[in-house]
Amino acid sequence: MKKILLIQTGGTISMQFGKSGTSYMDSQVSENVVKQELPELQQLADIDILGLFYEDSSNLNPEHWKKLANAIAEHYQKYDGFVVLHGTDTMAYTASALSYALKNLTKPVILTGSQVPLVSIRSDARRNLINAVEVATLPLHEVALCFNDKVFRGNRSTKMSIGDFDAFSSPNFLPLAKIGIHIETNFSIDTPRAEFYAEPVFDQDVLLIKLFPGLQSEVLLKMVQAISVKGIVIEAFGAGNMPVSGSTSVIPLLDYCRENAIAVLVTSQAAYDAVDLAKYENGRLALEHGALSAGDMTCEAAITKMMYLYAKYTHTHLVNQQLMIPIAGEMTL
User: Fold this and answer.
1) What pLDDT, on the 0 to 100 scale, is given for residue 21?
2) pTM for this structure?
3) For the chain, which terminus, N or C, has the lower number of CB atoms within 10 Å?
4) What is the DSSP track for 88-134?
């Protein structure tokens, strides 16, 4: 029987209800609830539980990602797979960050959670957790997200719904598995030649800018000039289009970034398909002024990749080179 480590980090799945109906997290109670509510998990695998931290996922930041990656590395030799219980709001960010930080994986790292607490009668937690544990026994050598009978590559996933059980999607990459009576897999079993190691390094001096009609160029420029920033991800329109004339032109910002060695990576506000700055005139002008196309990367994958790369490389030209190639399957060439 496979040996699986279940790591608790908090989120809705770990919540309890107080007498007034308000929700809260209690580490001791949460661990006992998993054992009491889902004793059948032990039929799937030999499971140990590690309460790493208990946080609403909106509170999580790169320090939590580092702690989680280090915990997996510390226990890597003792277990055949890992399941991480996590809040849904930032699960795709954590999954993306872990995909960069955990190198040469030969074991599954599966993130899951729920829209409704495990202690509720109509919770999706039971199904998600059972599925995640079973997937963690498969020869899936990467970080993945398991939710509502689907398994997505972690750095290709994004949260699409607040209120539906079908909360996550992988817009530009087919699911790694679909779970029904049988588990239908869609992944190859690649065993890295190098040894596993963890590299949980993230530089937080990056910025995400979402464009909207009427956003003034002067506001953007003053904001970036006033702070310490090494890289910027811009959520543009469509295939990467952005205003390039008048008071809302992004060109002054791009020129400032190029002059000050600040990387600019352009994603799209549209979830599906890929950014291609060469497709339209406005995008081509942005390209000429130093912007880079994020291709079909999600926003979560793009921002965490930039954090990771700036922690590894001192020079922006090296960051720019790495932004253009997949380092953990996060983009399609």
Assistant:
1) 52
2) 0.94
3) C
4) STTHHHHHHHHHHHEES--S-EEEE--SS-TTSTT-SHHHHHHHHHH
